[in-house]
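ZP: hey, is the dioxothiomolybdenum(VI) ion complex queued? I don't see it on the tracker
AM: it wasn't, my bad. submitting now with these inputs:
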Amino acid sequence: MASQIKVPSTIGGALPRIDGPLKVSGAAKYSSDYHFSGMLYAVPVCSTIANGKIVSMDTTAAESMPGVRAVYHRENIGPIYRVPPGEGFSAYLDERRPPFEDDVIRYYGQFVAVVVAQTFEQATAAASAVKVKYNEEKPGIATHLETDDEPKVESTRGKAEDAFNSAAVKVDETYSTPTETHNPIELHAIVAVWDGQSFTLYQTSQAVSNHRDVMAQMLGVPAENVRVISRFLGSGFGGKLWVWPPYLLAAASARKLNAPVKLVISRQMMFQTVGHRPRTQQRMRLGATTDGKLVSLQHDALNHTSILDEYGEGCGESTPFLYSTPNLKVTSALVPMNVGTPTAMRGPGAVPGLFALESAMDELAVKLKMDPVELRLRNEPAKDESNGLPFSSRHLVECFKVGAEKFGWSQRTAEIGSMKRDGLILGWGVAACAWGAGRFAASATVDLRNDGTARVSCGTQDIGTGTYTILAQVLSEKTGIPLDKIEVVLGDSSLPEGPISGGSLVTASVIPAISQAAERAMQSAVMMATSGDNAPFAGKKPEELGFTNRRVHLKEKAPETGIDYAEVLKRMNVSAASGSGKSEEYFGGPQAKQKYSVHSFGAQFAEITWQPEIARLRVSRVVTVIDSGRILNLRPARNQVEGAVVMGVGMALLEETKYDPRNGAPMNSNLADYMVATNADAPAVDVTFLDYPDKIVNEFGARGVGEIGLAGVAAAIAGGVYHATGVRVRELPIRIEDLLGQQEIA
Ligand code: MOS
């Protein structure tokens, strides 16, 4: 009997995404898929200088072109306001200057006007006919970052400088990572609808409630007059977390013209006005004993920012807690440049930071003539030494051991160029990875409906990672309702406020809220089952009843003896039993009041092949072992880590946004010249999850997997390149030229 009503648990299974059919059939609506009658198209005009002032603008030719409805600029767009500082994410954005606020140009591609026309082609043509005269000054575009500013101390303990100076073995090197641009397939897009009082904004957003609040502030309307919808995203990688100028131009134009306005940026604009990962330079000083015990660790990071905004990349994110050392200092400083404002990109801080830290650890291992895995094991801390807190769940040592076994690490011979296969020189490298964990505040509602289906809603987003599926799984687990009877609604700021799709935190954040909402909805069904003479359990008290696997039943009897909740609701003339749930944020860390240090961990093992005769460098395989708590769904989780590893190959070997020092333009602002890793570049990726539930974070023990797979990959590859070639590349991306030049010298 029991097997007939009990739906097998999906937690920990490997399930396809429930939104998959909508996506592959083209039915999923992305922001730019929305169409309305009378819709107009907006195309921005971008500055062609990076530093200076607008002297004059001639829009007359553009205004008289076919189909053009308006050309807006500083004089006529109407007010776009600044956002005052505020709590949480309600006032957060990275580029804080409203578009068109003044006539000063601070980066190439800054919007100076926007053309609205009946067709996209008309708007594009007219945008190129807007004539702007500038008073141009030389842009501050540095390829090497320098500052005299006093750095900010991010974390410190002991006497790092003294301990370094007296250490027996030292590494003192600087590592650089280049500007990288998020290149999701889906460009930033918005369809703005104004009804005379309220905005409905179909816009690419990793944070619909943040976008609602910020758009409302900047447009000068109450938050309840703004609704942001983002049902499906062609990813974001952090680039769509916050509001950027294109959204404001479209919304302000829609209000002016009283017509729906669509604005989709070009790939070129993606390199200019919607954020990027800034260049970093990180001086690492490691001091150790001759038997490989760290005595001092210093990490001094610089990153560029824009002229008006202070974006700190946070390169030292993992450094304070990754290894045991009595003496440590992590600092950061910013270097303003005439570029657009940087923003979070997958694993902000930790990803470039771990390239530096883990490359330096590899260099230390070489100096010590010690196996680089062994060096990590010798410096495993018993607790988070930056704050004295125990780790909620840390299994980094096991990550290394399992990874070494799977990779075949014991066969590694340390001598440079000593390993060969099929005429190729092999290089084996390894690195640790880590990423913060915890929870954002979240709320959700659950409706158990009288037709046997259920609905769960939460104002969070699915950026392509599997959030729709995870929400359905959690509700199914709580209620016993099968996945195909569960509707998941998200991506709408009018829903109960959910977390931003950032920091790999959505899964961990929504579990407690959905769990509470489900319990309350089940309780509501139980109460209906006892209320009134007509009730199926008339005369019983609610506390005598339970809700198990869709059935309302007497607690003293088996669930099979009960009544399906849908029957209860129908009998009582109720459409749905509903409940809402809320959960608080939780972070373990230096600033937190909590009792645990909460992070995910992992180990990356990379094999590269090097063919010196034809200078061919490939990444052939990566073994990655991730300690990310309980994995709710192996399939999307593995997808996340596989994708992140491939992105790591791009970071190591390909990705770099280059600015023209003469005019500040990103020179390779297209997908032909800005190279991302493709299928042809993808190594064989072997992903293992340790799957230790972290019950400190939530009842299922799930942390998150969106970002950690990228961390450490570039360092493992760089270590492999050194192992194969003897060339230590400390500036990404690793280029063939780096390897050839050194060989000529040698
Ligand atoms: Mo992620 S960079 O927090 O979207």
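AM: back. The mean pLDDT is 96.
ZP: great, adding it to the tracker
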